Amino acid sequence: MSEQTISRRVILSYGVLALPVGVIGIPMGIYLAPFYAGELGLPLAAVGVMLMLSRLTDFITDPLIGLLSDRWRPAMGKRKVWVPIGTVVIMSGVYLLFRPPEGVGTLYFLCAVSLTYFGYTTLLLPYHAWGAQLSTNYHERTQIIACSRFFDTAGLVIATIIPAYILSRPDATSGDILHGLSIFFLLGLPLCALITFTGVPEPEQDAGTSAQVTIPQALKLLSRNRPLALVIAAVFIATIAEVFRQTTTVFFADEIIGVENIGIVYAAYFVVALAMIPVWSRIAGRLEKHRALALALGVVVLTNLAMYFLEEGQVELFTALFILKGSCYGALALLPGAMIADTADIDTALTGENQQGLIFAIKAMVQKLAFATGQGLPLILLGWVGFDAAGGNGVAELHWLKIIYGIAPAVVALFSIAALIPYSLTEARHRELREYIDRGGKGSDAKVPEFIQ
């Protein structure tokens, strides 16, 4: 597509699909371990191992779906066709994972969570590539991704209101929360998928895209894309840090602080996150996207470190720090996707092809590996130090919990900031890049920008 502005209706129709997906995203990191380990009795370390193993297939499925979404051209549309496919797969996984029968074991958990993650791949990989192709404008891309992240965060707000309501009832459990969330998801996803499918145009067929580029060739070409490598590295490290903390939040809030209803705290967290998305979009417009992302990560580091020093009963201070961290969530959700969409233009300039599906597949594969690491590793560590998910822990176990929740993710996030320092694809350079592509790009007599040679 050209630099022409797309309508607000199309942007909203594109973004709404992220709403139901947002409802189950964070809860999978927050409530799965307390439910399967604390209620169903699976060993905590085993749950952590299964979560990590479930992501191994992503190294096959992510590039496969990415390439298929780039090259398979059914009459329905090469991006659109994945909306109904992905909807069916992820709904099946969520039903099995959030509503398991009695007596399930680790193998059932592994299969259910693997199917759910595969559903994420088949639905969201083509969806993100679709969004990257809706516009080539530097700032309009940010608006498109911001709209998607706005709906995603709105889904997270819903995913905190539902648990807050459920936890207000006596004897409510993590299983009750997952059951309630699954009802909203299973009803809402088909409706939102229909809106996106009918309301968003399929990207124009890419005349320059060849079906002859192999995976090794594509990866070799992408290795020349330094800005992409840097943002992928930052996403990988930041995701580990964020999920590391999320996975242990329920344990920390209950065992260390004594929070009675973590659902209310999360509701405030994501309401602030939702309100801050347009703010971070404006900050990125003033500072450049990578600097805005580094700023947000800096705040995350400070709030995580502060959590280590909290003691029992400091619910108000915990909530304040938690909400401050929530104000940065929009930047972490919005800016990496917009930056990757920009770096995909470098690949187009180098190859003459549009491989957004493959590029987002690489990003998704790396991010899922980071998610598995960040979700599985703290559970394994807690199991090693003798932490009991059902409660009744001693001083040593609780001190380790504070280190794993506060110190460890803060240290990891610092490396993510370091990865962003050399990032160089500014607005001015992106404008030069788009001018080169629009004049004919690879194979033409247009002047190649020096920074991509």
Report on the structure:
The structure is a single chain. The chain is mainly α. The chain has 19 helices and no strands. The protein is globular. The two termini are about 25 Å apart.
- Taking pLDDT < 50 over at least 5 consecutive residues as the criterion, the unreliable ranges are 207-214
What overall form do the CA principal axes indicate? Answer: globular
How many separate helices?
A: 19
If you average the pLDDT, what whole number results?
Answer: 84
- Percent of residues in helices comes to over 70%
Pattern of helices and strands: HHHHHHHHHHHHHHHHHHH
Content of β-strand: under 5%
C-alpha end-to-end distance = 24 Å
- Please tally the β strands and state the result: 0
Largest sheet: none
Structural class: mainly alpha
Radius of gyration: 22 Å
Topology:
Blueprint lengths: L7 H8 L2 H13 L1 H8 L4 H10 L4 H14 L10 H17 L7 H28 L4 H30 L6 H26 L15 H9 L2 H22 L1 H9 L4 H26 L1 H20 L6 H12 L2 H23 L4 H29 L10 H26 L6 H12 L15
Question: Any descriptors?
Answer:
453 residues; mainly alpha
Summarize the structure.
This protein is 75% helix and 0% strand. The chain has helices at residues 8-15, 18-30, 32-39, 44-53, 58-71, 82-98, 106-133, 138-167, 174-199, 215-223, 226-247, 249-257, 262-287, 289-308, 315-326, 329-351, 356-384, 395-420, 427-438.
